[in-house]
UniProtKB/TrEMBL annotation:
Gene3D superfamilies: 1.10.8.60, 3.40.50.2300, Homeodomain-like, P-loop containing nucleotide triphosphate hydrolases. Residues 141-369 form the Sigma-54 factor interaction domain. The modification 4-aspartylphosphate is found at D52. One of its GO terms (biological process) is phosphorelay signal transduction system. This is Sigma-54-dependent Fis family transcriptional regulator.
Amino acid sequence: MPHVLIVDDEPNTRAALAEIVAAEGFTTAVAGDLREARIQIVRQAPDAVLTDLKLPDGSGMDLFQDLDPKLAVEVILITGHASVESAVAALRLGAADYLVKPINIQRLKAILDRIPRAGDLKAEIGSLRDELRRFGRFGRMLGNSAAMQQLYDQIGKVAPTEATVLLIGESGTGKELAAQTIHELSLRRKQPFLPVNCGAISPNLIESEMFGHERGSFTGADRQHKGYFERAHGGTLFLDEITEMPIELQVKLLRVLESGLFMRVGTNREIETDVRVIAATNRNPMEAVADGKLRADLYHRLNVFPLDLPPLRERGKDVELIAQDFLEQLNTSHHGKKTFAPEVLGSLSAHRWPGNVRELKNYVQRAYIMASDDVISASVVPLQMSPNAPVSESVITISVGTSLADADRHLIFATLEQCGGVKKRAAEVLGISLKTLYNRLEEYAAAGRSPEAALAGDDLPVK
């Protein structure tokens, strides 16, 4: 039976917590300060520690140094409203979660429910992860480069915790795969994983999609609808392109993150949710804050554990490894036996891949379709860009004092012109999604700052 140590200087709080924890199937020990807690840790190593942040002889965070890291003890901090910043700092040190006083009993039970009942569960997960990592795989991710090994180390540390993660990387670097890997290595892995592209939802519908709505709350609402936060209860919600979320909705998102409560559109009744949020952006988040695309307070709440995903051009031989994996998947699906000619693999490694892994996947699929025999040669689908040069040698001049928004607009128009008006290609070069590019162009058109050619072109509508 798993064992929980409860540390709090208030006797009534200790007794109440011990009763709740015992009812959930744990043995318990209690302590009123750090000295007593250390004695209890020596007597019986806990599977989890539930500790107040402020204790008579120090901070609850001081107990981290008394716990054996090999045992992967879950530490849950208890804090007052004024100490939430300290609790977030504790999450970065490895705490699993934190509770705000007065303690929400349902939230406490949800946290306890995630603690493994079998002592060898984490060791089993770690062993499997290490075995796959030797083959260049980590969860759903693939790569052996030093940059990816560093990323794997960071994911391995943050995944078992409840810390909010902010994924930062160019378009096509695999942010959703990273989010899925974090979820699958967490204690929430048996619960839902819901990915949401904030830039692909109409601004008029995004609040309803996030939080749900009641029947009759607006025209066309002919039934009750559960939003993403309600459907992801107990699991992980992945918010991609977070900087594309309307600024007024970011206020409500911040409240959910801080309180765990939200309201469906059309009602005043609060609903409790237990969701871990992983957010992602292909923009520099500080620039997004400066541009007014991301609230500063939301950014700091999401930025508990930031992870930078390296672009494909910085991953060396990973390009060949990933290309071979895509080819094997196609061979399996189509019962084929195609292979790359040696010169193809060399050219793939030298290419810059502005569209990153997404662009590489598309290239492999085109080459597979076009190859008439079992050996895919370099002439089947020539790479569209020279190996070591960017898309263009063109230069644009921006005067000192130009606003970031205007500089952004000039760069988008120049890239569009260089790409012949092909928006998909321009989006890849700029490192943004096609939907994001369309949103920017629509904003410029509405402001009367977009040339007609920018909204014309040969692309199909984005769905």
